Amino acid sequence: MSAPTKVTPISGFPEFLPAERLVELHFLDVVREVFELHGFAPLETRAVEPVERLLGKGGDADKEVYGIRRLAADDDRDAALGLHFDLTVPFARYVLENAGRLDFPFRRYQVQKVWRGERPQEGRFREFTQADIDVVDVGELAPHFEAEMPLVIAEAFRRLPVGEFRIQVNNRKIPEGFYRGIGISDVATTLRIVDKLDKVGPGPVAEMLIESGASEDQARQVLALASVSSTDLSFVDAVHALGVRHPTLDEGLDALAAVVAAGMEQAPGVLVADLRVARGLDYYTGTVYETQLVGAEAWGSVCSGGRYDSLASDGRTTYPGVGISIGLTRLVHLLVTKRGLTASRSTPAAVLVAVVDEASRETSRRVATALRARGIPCEVAPSAARFGKQIRYADRRGIPFVWFPGAGEGGDQVKDIRSGEQVDADAATWQCPPEDLRPAVVTP
Amino acid sequence: MSAPTKVTPISGFPEFLPAERLVELHFLDVVREVFELHGFAPLETRAVEPVERLLGKGGDADKEVYGIRRLAADDDRDAALGLHFDLTVPFARYVLENAGRLDFPFRRYQVQKVWRGERPQEGRFREFTQADIDVVDVGELAPHFEAEMPLVIAEAFRRLPVGEFRIQVNNRKIPEGFYRGIGISDVATTLRIVDKLDKVGPGPVAEMLIESGASEDQARQVLALASVSSTDLSFVDAVHALGVRHPTLDEGLDALAAVVAAGMEQAPGVLVADLRVARGLDYYTGTVYETQLVGAEAWGSVCSGGRYDSLASDGRTTYPGVGISIGLTRLVHLLVTKRGLTASRSTPAAVLVAVVDEASRETSRRVATALRARGIPCEVAPSAARFGKQIRYADRRGIPFVWFPGAGEGGDQVKDIRSGEQVDADAATWQCPPEDLRPAVVTP
């Protein structure tokens, strides 16, 4: 088909070149592998939900939804539909819709595109992939799942080229109990103000707290709590030292201590109790998570989540859950643009099988078939150009090996075009070096 | 969050249960593996294109497009955007936009959701996944790629539980040359009528041809050509026997003979020269493909494509291409609903590690970590219920093994809950039977 001549990027809708997409695929493969090793079942939900369900979530979500509409719709019989802006709302609906056909506790992972109609800015996208895990149960959810979530993420991140990272954990009950213990009753407003700490700093936060009705002493105490952080259990004593007691605070400290203790055992140095972490969303009721890459704290959290007592409810049954979500497109995009991550080649092919002349293309094709039968990705040269040109074809794509049928005495030869070394080889037995079998993720 | 109580499926937007999704994932994994073995680079494009680009394709595509719109848009500065209805239009745009950064011939695969605002009916979806491969070049595209496409698909299908299948191939130049050779000048209209043969049969097609201006003899010849089919090169003689000669016809017969000869060599019995295959889309100019599962011809083509002389053009440079596309959601949905395909379990976990009591959960967790370190997907029991209940937990999900820490003399034991056999085992060395490591695709 012919295409209009104007082709331009659309702001907020990122696209990768092939080598960058190979980096993203590596990330997708690793998170999937780790999620499956931990027994999370794969799930996909449709991209659309009724608009009323998307907007029902509260907060300012209504600012972010894309509605969809059949351009040729000749009637209004279609319900108003919108693209999902996260994977939690559709998962909650899926659980309600299929409750009778799922086994609880239900562990699922879900890796899909989501869409948000926000104003695009650097590192903020209107279309991006999220990778979520959640555990949901009926009525009650065992607390050990709250310790499990960040440790699954820690295992995935350890296998990824993201460098050092910290998963910050808090428990909503700690600030809630603490605020009540010092006589603050509007917990939600106080949390929302504390959530701005990273952006505006403690001075302005104290002012906002006082504006919202807190005394100077209360504001000082709120900031003191937010400054508590430890990679071990010492945060408990640090909170006690502030002299505030409340049953909800004690519950929260016990719960967070269990999560941090599991982290100390299984991923030393990765989990940090950080009592500043609030998470903006109202529905978290227990542990909350944020994740920062060391040295790239300005990127903000790359993986967040928490526990919600009521992920879904049909009026009779309540489904509590806990989940965590990797902002995958954003993470990969930042690593590609800021740290120069790329792939060692722009194609899966490890070998280019050269073609001596068009009449012998079938010979080259048979070599390729023999290599593929043993799991070696390869490509047959597109034309029987002179060998120098065929080698350049491989070189431009980063394909490490070029195969020359009939080049040896009574057999083929293969050339490592990086070293120039060329040796006799048989397609039925040649071993591709394991590190060359797949494109590797590299930094320049 | 709380959810509105009404949860209903949306017609045309299919969702799978976990075991069904595992079937779909198996299909996705196999096609990806085969595409990568053949050196196709992975690519994803954004889900949206400018509406004018989507509608510019001609035909009745305008009936099928979903437009998107920010619900909270306070201005009209956003260009009109729509969801893509196939992967060819966005790929053509991507090639134009990135031509300077791609190496040609460019081989890519693309597996993504597409959306069509059609009236839903059985096996027709408004949201579904397509899996495409294409090769695109600058100016000229070598004809051997036209033989390669269906053979890549044949290799993927042979590895999938789809049973016997046939890939029907034709070349647009054959009917075009033949029609001109018998004096029919309106080739496009004639092709569109012949395309209805499967639906309405030869009688009504002859009538429509005559209505469109053909003589009875011309109509008879058109139907005679459409009835030619062979799994070898005999179709060439069968066409010659009809007594029509035209240079374009000869070109088409030579090209199709080359494709069928490659098929006879590489995938005997799979490729069928079928001169009835027309494909509705105007932009095909050479070989065209359709694929049918034997015994399920009523499902129609599950994988189609063809050659286009101008996949994309910026006015100065033309990019010819050839591609083929698997209608993956539709194929899997039909196999699941009509042939009962499902997965052997509803979770990736091969092992459930039992928990003796909550105090020893950490012991069970260490077993799980040891198994995962050797690539064995597993799950720790959600509660320290009595073992009968923990075994039922595994059984309901189809998890084949339950691991009992400390059950043996000085060690652990593992039970195959299908046979009941329970043996001593060490998490550092136990071998999971390879056939149990991943969920298998099975028929009841």
UniProtKB/TrEMBL annotation, chains A, B:
PROSITE patterns attached to this UniProt entry: AA_TRNA_LIGASE_II
Gene3D superfamilies: Anticodon-binding domain, Bira Bifunctional Protein, Domain 2
Family statement: Belongs to the class-II aminoacyl-tRNA synthetase family.
Cross-referenced InterPro entries: aa-tRNA-synth_II (IPR006195), aa-tRNA-synth_II/BPL/LPL (IPR045864), Anticodon-bd (IPR004154), Anticodon-bd_dom_sf (IPR036621), His-tRNA-ligase (IPR015807), HisRS-like_core (IPR041715), HisRS/HisZ (IPR004516)
Protein name in the entry: Histidine--tRNA ligase
UniProt superkingdom: Bacteria
Gene: hisS
Keywords noted in UniProt: Aminoacyl-tRNA synthetase, ATP-binding, Cytoplasm, Ligase, Nucleotide-binding, Protein biosynthesis
Domain Aminoacyl-transfer RNA synthetases class-II family profile: 31-348
Quaternary organization: Homodimer.
Regions crossing the membrane: none
Listed GO MF terms: ligase activity
E.C. number: 6.1.1.21
Pfam family for this entry, one: tRNA-synt_His
Catalysed reactions, semicolon-separated: tRNA(His) + L-histidine + ATP = L-histidyl-tRNA(His) + AMP + diphosphate + H(+)
